[in-house]
Amino acid sequence: MAYSTLITGPERRRRWSDEQELELLVEVFGPGGNVTETARRAEIWVVSQVVV
Question: Is residue 26 over pLDDT 90?
Answer without folding.
Answer: yes
